[in-house]
Amino acid sequence: MLTIHQVTKQFDGSQVLKGVDLTVNKGDVIAIIGQSGGGKTTLLRCMNFLETADSGTMEFDGETFDLAKISKKDIERIRRKTAFVFQSYNLFRNKTALQNVMLGLTVARKMPKAQAEQIARSALEKVGLADKADSYPNALSGGQQQRVAIARALATDPEIIYFDEPTSALDPELTGEVLCVMRSLAEEGMTMLVVTHELGFARNVSTKVIFMENGSVVESGPSMEFFTNPKEERTRAFLNTITQHEKE
Amino acid sequence: MFEGISNAVSAFFSQRLVGILVESFPKMLLPGLKMTIPLTAISFSIALVIAVIAAMIQVAKIPVLRQLIRFYIWVVRGTPLLVQLYVVFYGLPNLGIVLEPFPTAVLVFSINEGAYCAETMRAAIESIPKGQMEAGVCVGMSWLQTMFHVILPQAFRTAFPPLSNSLISMLKDTSLAANITVMEMFMVTQRIASRYYEHLALYIEVALIYLLFCTVLTKVQAVCEKKLASYGF
Ligand SMILES: Nc1ncnc2c1ncn2[C@@H]1O[C@H](COP(=O)(O)OP(=O)(O)OP(=O)(O)O)[C@@H](O)[C@H]1O
Ligand SMILES: [Mg+2]
How many CB pairs under 8 A join A and B? Predict the structure, then answer.
């Protein structure tokens, strides 16, 4: 469904992505893990054109695009088929939860208000926030804001949702509610690409894991295999440090 | 001592003077309501439109247009308003362009105020976190759609206090239009004053009317700010 090939990106002379390849099939839940500064966020942002890659191609629904030269029209077209969940939620601060979820439907997709509201309400219900429809973001907890953000992503019926560390900004007791929502999406067959530090999620929910370091993919594979039998020395080292942290 | 002052005051407010002041009050207030306020309201509305467009062009970094906007702001902010009024009203006729006093005033005031408000709006837009625009385009809206539905409403709220101050200054600055024969409040006062030869009293009287107008605006501003704060964002 989605393949990227040889994506590169530089920031002020430092090579942040060094030719990344990635394939996503329908129904995949892919966890991208790796050390801080490894280029995971940059990769997701390049895939949704929030950053312009220096080179690389993307094949999406049978069309091929040059990431460095893609037109505005194509970007808008692709974005209507994808959704992005940010680490810092980025809910529209001047809109209620319901309006946040509706805006992509009424404005971007010109859907009639009544129909959009119906979809938005059921999306909010799905993340367990039907009763917060009229609350503004600043009246919601971090976990609730992130769930609204997930509802906003769901409402547009995307083919794939990108998540950039959706729980990293949350207090530990709030991460559970967000992960729970994500797990139920995964079970329904939603295609997801998730940058995460939650190894539990990577191990138990995702179907595939990608380990990135210094702008390259070091190892990728089905989650079971990845965790029980990592092939690369660096992967093992990384997993060791993390599991030690978790024990402490 | 006190007697001296009170004598002076009562001498100053002779019956004749009180009569003049009372008689002049409606004569000043009327052009205030019919000229000063419409001039301010129309010019400021146009200025806001100019400001929003100019600010968006700068934030969007549209080449060429952006340089033109910078040039416009530079020129307008670097030259006196009074000189701008003279250039358009007394200068342009040399090129065969003759405008009526009121349209000239509207033109100059809106272009002038537009430049200042453009900077206010630009700063307000730039103060909105980058993630708001990113989230907007990620749900499929265009840059412009996100601007209108998400960024500008937030920016207006940030810009509301400085814009209100600009409006209040502008109301007072409309008195400069007397120089290009617009029959606004100050022009009318000048005529009355030179007829009765009571400059001090009459100019103080018109100052008090300006003060009244500005006080009303300040009160309205306070009420609006309270209202804005009560919205949930
Ligand atoms: N806009 C930018 N300008 C300059 N450098 C940047 C920019 N964005 C990212 N970088 C740099 O690129 C590198 C990769 O950053 P990135 O955010 O992609 O890493 P990450 O894997 O997501 O890390 P983390 O786990 O901490 O989120 C970092 O060294 C970072 O400093
Ligand atoms: Mg990151």
Answer: 74
